TrEMBL record, chain A:
Subunit structure: Interacts with the CDC2 protein kinase to form a serine/threonine kinase holoenzyme complex also known as maturation promoting factor (MPF). The cyclin subunit imparts substrate specificity to the complex.
Spans traversing the lipid bilayer: none
Organism: Lupinus angustifolius (Narrow-leaved blue lupine)
Residues in Cyclin N-terminal domain copies: 89-142
Sorted UniProt keywords: Cell cycle, Cell division, Cyclin
Pfam families: Cyclin_C (PF02984), Cyclin_N (PF00134)
Identification of the protein by name: B-like cyclin
Top-level taxonomic group: Eukaryota
GO BP term, pick one: cell division
Cross-referenced InterPro entries: Cyclin (IPR039361), Cyclin-like_sf (IPR036915), Cyclin_C-dom (IPR004367), Cyclin_N (IPR006671)
Family: Belongs to the cyclin family. Cyclin D subfamily.
Annotated Gene3D superfamilies: Cyclin-like
Signal sequence residues: none
Domain Cyclin C-terminal: 145-234
Automatic annotation (TrEMBL), chain B:
Keywords: ATP-binding, Kinase, Nucleotide-binding, Serine/threonine-protein kinase, Transferase
Species: Lupinus angustifolius
Catalytic activity of the protein: L-threonyl-[protein] + ATP = O-phospho-L-threonyl-[protein] + ADP + H(+); L-seryl-[protein] + ATP = O-phospho-L-seryl-[protein] + ADP + H(+)
Entries under Pfam families matching the protein: Pkinase (PF00069)
A GO biological process held by the record: signal transduction
Record protein name field: cyclin-dependent kinase
Molecular function via GO: ATP binding; cyclin binding; cyclin-dependent protein serine/threonine kinase activity
EC number(s) stated in the UniProt entry for this protein: 2.7.11.22
Domain of life: Eukaryota
Length: 249, 317
């Protein structure tokens, strides 16, 4: 996809904004996203491809050769309040502002983004210009589909107990935010399915295959591969080899 | 009034191109068309800006251009614009207005839409409702198809009213427009800001219900359906819409709306018996009346969904 690189950056912001905005509306929205219909999830699975990064993005990011990997790192530095250059701070500010406009009811004024003595202070018009540039570059496709879009639905498919859903959801959020760029090769729905399984199930092959059979719209092999990677990266603990139970397919 | 709207995007200027090259390492997306749209007519004027009917100088194509000003410089691009454009990007359906192009300027944005002839409120005013039963049925069906499509995409419109529903006169096709208040939802969500139009607002919204869902759009569709029958907003002139709703449909009780007595505001309303809706909406067929009642169901949990409404006997022929 042409606009792959900055898109992924902004996706990162969409994912992170829930932490930044704390008790704003989107939190409660998450609590209630168990009731989504099967049809709408199928629509999302069809649409998520539009929000994938360009094919060479991950390679460039790993090699550290492209401008983008530098910009991305610096943007994260801004989020984590480390020193950065003006361009990246401006870009990150604009992405942050756009994410808030899509997802929140209260959008922070530009002035509030300058709290905490940042390195550079931008004029409102400068931030607005950057916002327009980001929006145009991404062709205004701001309704991003991320693992967060699926997670509530998948958890509700695997488990029926209400109290377990809530705790699984908060565990999932932590898990999804802890995964690294190595997961970029997976689609949002595949990551969400792997996360949902890992927080709701005892991670044994038999249990995993049982859970997978209730998530019809994702490719089982891909979810297993994602789970394997999570295991390799020690994000989750999985007992035994996931692929031993092939006969289930 | 400006005579023309140019066809050049603000981000095509040199500074922006340099920024973009730095960002993306590419420089092949720009083409200066250098054409313009000739304004033929101002279709609508609102607080956000204007809607024009225009003709493209080179292709001759007729379009509708909605010009939205950025009037709060502390906030920048209004969130309604960000949402409307990005939601319309995701929605492509014959009953939803199609967004052809976005032209950003420094302090405003031009949204270029397919041409729109007339909105439903004008149609209702000029024709004293939608009197032809088959046209009325067709309009309602198309509105419901559009709403069902939005809901399947997890998008609430939140501001359905005759003014936001456009008609392609030549083919009598309905186009739902104005997604400035629309947003994504997950099942149901916390209510924080009320959609501005009170005539089409669902009772649970008046009661400050903590969570609302797709039901609010179906309530609005019910109000629009009723308005097509009687030729004016069903609640009429009133300063207390909820009181008017209860007068028409009867004050709800725990029996037909479990949990209603929990709303602090509810206690202040008088107890009314429901009116005979077959006399209020006397021009409507019995199946239509039944569907109208299901759309105007007070309890949002029991209100019919767009998907189910389309399977109703009213649409059987």
């Amino acid at each position: 996809m042409e606009e792959g690189t900055p898109l992924t950056l902004s996706l990162k912001f969409f994912e992170h904004k829930k932490i930044f905005f704390g008790d704003f509306e989107s939190d409660s929205e998450l609590d209630h996203n168990f009731q989504v219909s099967d049809e709408s999830v199928e629509v999302m699975v069809q649409r998520e491809g539009e929000h994938l990064p360009r094919e060479d993005y991950l390679k460039n990011l790993r090699s550290g050769e492209s401008n983008m990997s530098v910009v991305r790192k610096q943007a994260l530095d801004w989020i984590l309040k480390r020193g950065i250059n003006w361009f990246t701070q401006l870009l990150a500010t604009a992405c942050f502002q756009i994410a808030a406009k899509m997802g929140e009811t209260k959008v922070p004024q530009y002035a509030r983004l300058h709290v905490g003595s940042p390195k550079f202070i931008f004029e409102a018009l400068t931030i607005q210009r950057m916002e327009l540039l980001v929006l145009n570059t991404l062709e205004w496709k701001m309704q991003a589909i991320t693992p967060c879009s699926f997670i509530g639905y998948f958890i509700s498919k695997i488990t029926c107990e209400k109290h377990q859903m809530k705790s699984s959801l908060s565990k999932s959020m932590k898990l999804m935010l802890s995964i690294s760029i190595d997961f970029l090769e997976f689609r949002a729905s595949e990551i969400a399915a792997a996360v949902a399984i890992s927080v709701t199930r005892e991670l044994e092959a038999k249990e995993i295959h049982k859970a997978l059979s209730s998530l019809a719209m994702v490719k089982k092999e891909r979810v297993l591969k994602c789970l394997e990677l999570m295991k390799d990266m020690s994000v989750v603990k999985v007992s035994g080899n996931l692929f031993t139970n092939e006969s289930v397919f | 009034m400006a005579e023309e709207i140019d066809d050049i995007d603000y981000t095509d200027n040199l500074f922006m191109r340099l920024l973009q090259c730095t960002l993306c390492g590419q420089n092949n997306r720009f083409n200066y068309e250098g054409f313009s749209y000739k304004i033929l007519q101002t279709i609508e004027e609102g607080i956000y800006g204007r809607v024009y009917r225009c003709r493209h100088s080179a292709t001759g194509d007729i379009v509708a251009i909605k010009q939205i000003k950025f009037d709060d410089e502390k906030i920048g691009v209004p969130s309604s614009v960000v949402r409307e454009v990005s939601l319309l990007r995701a929605l492509q359906h014959v009953n939803i207005v199609s967004l052809l192009k976005v032209l950003t300027k420094e302090t405003y944005v031009n949204l270029v839409f397919e041409p729109l002839d007339q909105d439903l409120s004008h149609y209702i005013r000029d024709n004293r409702g939608v009197q032809d039963p088959s046209i009325r049925k067709s309009f309602l069906r198309q509105i419901l198809v559009g709403v069902a499509y939005c809901h399947a995409h997890k998008i609430l419109h939140r501001d359905l009213k005759p003014k936001n529903i456009w008609i392609d006169n030549s083919r009598m096709i309905i186009k739902i427009a104005d997604f400035g208040l629309a947003r994504e939802f997950g099942g149901d969500m916390l209510l924080t800001r009320y959609p501005p139009n009170r005539y089409y607002r669902a009772p649970e919204v008046f009661l400050h219900c903590q969570h609302y869902s797709s039901g609010i759009d179906l309530w609005s569709v019910g109000c629009i359906f009723g308005e097509m029958v009687i030729g004016r907003p069903i609640l009429g002139d009133t300063c207390d819409e909820l009181d008017a709703i209860f007068r028409m449909l009867g004050t709800p009780s725990e029996e037909n709306w479990p949990g209603i007595t929990q709303f602090p505001l509810f206690g202040s309303y008088a107890i009314y018996n429901p009116m005979d809706l077959s006399t209020v909406f006397s021009g409507l067929e019995p199946e239509g009346l039944e569907l109208l009642k299901m759309l105007l169901c007070l309890d949002p949990k029991r209100r019919i969904s767009a998907e189910t409404a389309l399977k109703h006997a009213y649409f059987k022929d």
